[in-house]
Each structure stands twice: as structure tokens, then as C-alpha cells.
Amino acid sequence: MTASSRETKAAHIRHILETEGDAVSTNTQGFNDGRYESVAKLEDYEALKDEARAIKEDAIERLPSLLSQLRETVEENGGTLYVADDAADANDYVRNVVSEADGERVVKSKSMTSEEMELNEALSEDDVDVVETDLGEWVLQVADEAPSHIVAPAIHKSREAIAELFTERFDPDEPLETAEDLTMFARRKLAEKITAADVGVTGANFVAADSGTMALVTSEGNARKTVTATDTHVAVAGVEKVVPTVEDLHPFVELIGRSGTGQDITSYVSLLTPPVDSPTLDFEADELGPADDREFHLVLIDNGRMAMRDDEDLRETLYCIRCSACSNSCANFQQVGGHAFGGETYSGGIATGWEAGVEGLDTAGEFNDLCTGCSRCVNACPVGIDIPWINTAVRDRVNRDGETDLDWLVEGLTPDEEPGGVSLQKRLFGNFATLARLGSATAPVSNWLADNPVSRRVLERVAGVDRRRALPAFRRETLRAWMADRPPVPNPEREVVLFPDLYTNHVQVERGKAAVRALEALGVAVRLADVSASGRAPLSQGMVATARDHAESVANDLLAHVDAGRDVVVIEPSDHALFQREYEKLLDEKRYERLRANSYEILEYVYGCLENGADADALRDGAGEEIAYHSHCQQRTLGVERYTEAVLEELGFDVVTSDVECCGMAGSFGYKQEYYDVSMAVGSELEAQFTTADTDERTVVASGTSCEEQLDDLLGRSPKHPVELLTPVVRTERVSGEPGA
Hints:
Layout: H1 3-19, H2 21-39, H3 45-61, H4 63-77, E1 80-84, H5 87-100, E2 105-108, H6 112-117, H7 119-124, E3 129-132, H8 135-143, H9 159-170, H10 179-195, E4 199-202, E5 206-208, E6 214-218, H11 222-228, E7 232-238, E8 242-243, H12 249-260, E9 268-272, E10 280-282, E11 287-289, E12 295-301, H13 305-309, H14 325-329, H15 331-336, H16 351-358, H17 361-365, H18 376-380, H19 387-401, H20 407-410, H21 424-430, H22 432-442, H23 445-451, H24 453-463, H25 479-483, E13 494-499, H26 502-506, H27 509-521, E14 524-528, H28 536-540, H29 544-563, E15 567-570, H30 573-586, H31 589-597, E16 599-601, H32 602-611, E17 626-630, H33 633-638, H34 641-650, E18 654-657, H35 676-689, E19 699-702, H36 705-715
Parallel strand pairs: 1-12, 2-3, 2-4, 4-7, 5-8, 7-12, 13-14, 13-15, 15-16, 17-18, 17-19
Antiparallel strand pairs: 5-6, 6-9, 10-11
Helix pairs in contact: 1-35, 2-12, 3-12, 29-31, 30-31, 32-34, 35-36
């Protein structure tokens, strides 16, 4: 990406933040809060998700045979099934159906697949009047705008904006002021269109192969009107929407509304086995006709899906049930919506997989970097799709698809395993291990040079590192150097290997020292791992080969300690999450499982020590000290943030915990010129929580490196890592033979 294109992208994002951000934020966060409330009512939410995922896994595995079975059932019911190779093929088929029906007007209920096909445009070429009947889709059709959300396409528009649009376009007799006014006005307008339509087009959330039954999950019921008011019904859907049986619909009906809009059940759940047996309707003559006159066509589209099915990294995309939970739970999407975080058709976290599969890498690459890999969407997804990995894998392909004029110079001369096409910005952040080593070796000169105004302008221009963001200050004395001569703990209760991540070793050395002191105070002997580069930095840039190389080095080192009976303790939550989650993609199964089972986040480990008899009096007495605590997003995904809160409260600290799930920094994301404004917009919610009357004077505490950096920038109050609160003030370090400091 050139400096000019970065500036253009940054300007576009600022425009979206200013014009659509408030509406998108209010609505998506409302949906997300509703999801929490709704799923809490389920007896066993996780079991229901597991059941839904198992059905989708089975359906995609058996998809060719299910399509054959579905063809038989649809034809037995009196309908026709057409499997289209691509969008053009599908459009041609639908155009022929409309033509044979002498169709002059087509009414449609909401369908993402028809958006993907650009069906409206195709029918318009035949002078067919196409009318969207879903309120949100109709608003956008009137406004001539693209959807901004999978479920709520007009989520970026306020009530006032819609009222202004309708007034301008239709000049209503009465002013449209309330939501009810707008809805009733739209209802009257659409009723006129529906009763005069010749062909109805719907989507299908699910199609049961055993019976041909379609499930339509909607908020307004216009799908039913579209089907019954017209004699010819065309349903369009992706081939991945097929499930084996009607019984398989149960978990999806339970989950889709809760996951998407926070409703216990969506307003309308329609199970149709077309052609439906209701009489045909002649609105002009006000007469009923025979049901036998109804015609039904099910058009299933491949358009890259079968290739995705055979793609190890993209396959899980086909499990998607289009609920939008990934969008609603994503802090970045909450700020900019699908007009920034989306492609030709799909938006949000899962959009990368869809757009890469059906449109190509160029389209996916336009917005892919807005996924920061925070993993909030993983727990939100009702079928447990590993969306961050899909985004990472596509990012890797985009990197490898790129070319630069200096490929010949880059390859082999850079300290990574990547081809020459990786952008300078990504290569810079992906090789943070090299920067950290050089930074510490030459500190404080390196810090002065990096923070020089001239250097910052050059860095922004060349690599897109925003000059408004403070850079990390490297420490001359690393944690590894500090530990070199540290004497062993006499008669330890247990022994651990501490993973000194790059920031702990080179930048935030004090939190590393505090971790060592806290563990030693609890009778734990501490060794440092010989490696510091976990692979998180290159993985975040889509540099998968480099990340895998780092993972192999880490596993070789840490598993030797595991073999020796030592537990692995990790300070940085994003690295702990790497060991627990992403290493599954980077290591062989056996080594991944061993490392996952034997690694612990630092406060999780302290909690375990205290629960197993370690003396809490060896740690600092909080004595009611008031702290404002923010946990890392990946801690929350793993469910380990509760250990930090429990330890701090046990030691007597007065803890107020933020309920903001993402600080907005997300590692390198907050440094990048094109995303700095999004980062700060996300962070503003955390800032608001930590500047109230109750929190403004509290000590700010955060578990993650990114969180600490963001809070420092937002508040001007230097945060601490929670482990820094645990150890008594150290006056002198102990020497050999003396009790622990």
C-alpha cells in the first residue's frame, strides 16, 4: 500500500466514523448486548452450538449427495431445482423464469445470495421492475446505497435520515416523524407493489434435503407475502444452505435470532415446502385460483463454494448461518460498519472468507486488516467458526499474491520466511523481534532516534506508522540480562519456566521482574525460556510461514522444560492465547496439545498457587487500594480474566472492572496510519469508563501490552500490569543465600 492509498483509506474511514459511526455503534452494540441476555436463558448454550456445528460439518462433508437427494425431493414436490455454476448462470436462469411468467414486476424478500448475484441489476436489464420488500433493503433501494450489515442492511441510517429520505423521494401528505410513521408509510407503499407483482423471489436460511422444506427466518414476514401473493416463486441460496433433515433445523432456529439480534426467537420463522398449497391470488379480480397453478424454482448457487469446501482454510466459512454475531461483537465493526469493514456483498469478520471465496483476494484484501484477531467473534459465533484464522490465512495469501519491484532484493535478506511481496508496513511489524533486539542493544539512542520528529514523519510516510501514536521505549537492560545472575530459590515448592515475550523482555521489563518476584515469594523457582518471539507479531500481519518458524522454536524450547516437569507461565495474554489457540494451526497436534495443557497465564498461575496452599501473606496487602482494571480481549475469550480479579480481591484491592471488551489498540493495528482513528474511536468507550467520578483517581491496571499502551495514550495515566501490584516494595535484591526479596 502506497502512502497515498493509506491516506485515502484513512480519509474514507474518518468519513464513515463521522457520518455513520454513531448509528452503527448504537445498533450493533444493542444487538450484542441482546445476545448476551438471550443466550443466558438457554439451559446449555454451548451444547446447542456444538450440535449446530456438527450438523453443518456433516452437511458440508456430504454436500454432493445431499444435493442429489434434494433434487429428488423438490421434483417430487412439484418444483424444480437448478444448481448454478456462478452468478451469471444463476441470473440467466432466473431471468428465463421471469420471462416465461411474463413478469413485469418482481418482489423480493431479503436475500444476501441475490445481492451476491446482483440479481436486481440483471433483471433490470430486461426492464423488470424489482422491488425489495424488507424494510431495510427497501430503504437502501430508495437511497441507492449498499447494505452495511448482513442482517440489518440499513443499520447505518438513523430514523431522522430515513424520514428525510422518504420525504424527499415521496413527498408524503403527512410528516413522517416516528418509527411507526415510517413503518406504516413503507407498509402501504410496499403493499401496492406486492399485490401487483408477477414473480416472488426469496432467499432461504436453510433447506432440508429430506423434504425440500425451506426455513425462512425474518423480522417482518414479507417473505410470506412474497411467496403467497405471486404465482411463481423463485428461491435463491448458496449450496451450503442445505442440511440433511427438517429435524436438523432445531438448533439453528434456537440460535440464529439470539446470535444476530438478541431475540429469543425471530419474529417470523416460516417453514415452507414449496410449491405451497395455498390458493393463487388475483388481486385485480379479487378471486382465488387453484394451488396447482403455483410454480416453484429453487436456484442453488455454487459461485466458488465447492472450491471453498475443498480448501482447508476457507472450508469453515461454509458453516456460516449469516447471523451477524461476528459483526456485532467486533469492536472495529461497531465503529465503521460494513461500508468500511466489508466487500462486494458480505461484511464483518466472516466476510473475508466469503469475499475471498466468491470474489477473490483483491476484494478480501481491501478490508481484511480491520480484523485484529482479538477472537471475540469466536465465542459469539453460534457454530464456532475460527474466523480469526480464516482472516489470517487470507491475509497470508494476499501477501503472497503481492509483488514489489524489489522482490529480488527482499527475499533472503529479511529476517523472515516470507516472499518479497509483503508490504513494508507488514514486514516492519511482523519482524518486531529484530527491532526489539536492536532497540535494546542501542538504547537510549534508538529511542531518541525513533521519537525524533523527522524520523516520525519518515516512518509515517514510508511505513504508515502514525506519528500521533507514542512508540515503545526499549530498555537497555532486558529481563534476560536482569535474570542472568539471579540466584535460585532455596527448596522451591515448584518450578516454572517463564516465557519472556518481546515486550516483557525489551520494553516492559518491570512487569517481568514483578512476575519473577511474585512467583518466588510463593516458593516457585523461576527459569526464563531461551526464546522470546512467540510468532504473534508475524501472525498478525498474515506472515504465517514466519509465525510457524517462531512457533517451532518456542515449542522446542518450552517442551523441553515441560519434559523436565516445569509449568509454562506466560505474562502477555496474546501470547498465552497463541499457545492455547493458534498454535493448533502452526504445530503438529501432539506438541500443540502438550504445550496448551501445560501453559498458564501469570495471574491464573498465581491463583492456582494460592488455591493449593501458597501463603497469600507473602504477597502485597492491597489494603483497600482502589484500582480500575481492564482485562485483555483474548483473556476473556479464554475465560481466564476471572483469575486476575479473584487474586486482586483476595489480596484486599478495591477493584472496578471495565465491561468494555476491547481497548482498540490490538497490537500493531493502533499504530497504523489508516486505522489510527478507528483504534481511538474504539478506545473512547474505555476512556469514558475510566474517567468517571468513581474511576478517575484509581490506579489503572491492564493485563495486555496493547491495553496498557492504549490507556496510556487515552488517559495520560501510566497503567500497571496486575502482577506489579502483587509484590512488596523491593528495597534490595537478595543475594545468594538470603531469603527472597
